[in-house]
Amino acid sequence: QVQLVESGGGLVQPGGSLRLSCAGSGMIFSLYAMGWYRQAPGKQRELVATIGSTGSSNYDDSVKGRFTISRDNAKYTVSLQMNSLKPEDTAVYFCNAFRFVGGSKFDYWGQGTPVTVSS
Predict the structure, then answer these.
(1) Is residue 47 within 8 Å of residue 37, measured between CB atoms?
(2) Per-residue pLDDT at 9
(3) What percent of the chain has pLDDT over 90?
(4) What confidence tens digit (pLDDT) does each residue in 26-76 have?
(5) Which of 73, 27, 37 is closest to 53 using CA atoms?
(6) CA-CA distances (angstroms) from residue 46 to 16, 92, 96?
(7) Edge-first strand listing for the sheet containing 67-72
(8) Sequence-separated (6 or more) residues with CB below 8 Å from residue 18
(9) Measured distance CA(94)–CA(110) in Å, rounded
């Protein structure tokens, strides 16, 4: 079955950087659009960035210019480089894979990796 496993979260000071990675398995990775979402305590899960199967990317306004999403289809990985981190970036970050086949959406999630931005 499809599995997504995130890594790279942790504690970082404001202004610092982290790189999150997500490894996929049980899927033809190149067929899926990939995304990173986050959920802060007491808040709903929100979109951070997505990258299509051909590499086109989109970002939430709150992270534009600070975060970069990338993918390596050969290694079945998607990454999120996070720079200039702010306390408000503190959240659990989730990897997502999705594709549409014949009008049906196939949607998969990782277990999440926590990011804490604090001095």
Answers:
(1) yes
(2) 96
(3) 92
(4) 999 999 999 999 999 999 999 999 999 888 999 999 999 999 999 999 999
(5) 73
(6) 22, 11, 12
(7) 3-7, 18-25, 77-82, 67-72
(8) 8, 9, 10, 12, 82, 85, 115
(9) 6
Burial of residue 22 (number of CB atoms within 10 Å: 0-12, 13-18, 19+): buried
For residue 38 the two structure tokens come to 């986050």
Q: What gap in Å lies between CA 25 and CA 2, rounded to an integer?
A: 6
Give which of 95, 107, 99, 80 is closest to 18, Cα–Cα: 80
Cβ neighbours of residue 54 closer than 8 Å, sequence gap 6 or more: none
- Residues with Cβ within 8 Å of 24's Cβ and at least 6 positions away in sequence, in order, are 2, 3, 4, 32, 34, 76, 77, 78, 97
Contact between residue 113 and residue 8 where contact means Cβ atoms under 8 Å apart:
yes
φ/ψ (deg, to 5) at 43:
-125, 165
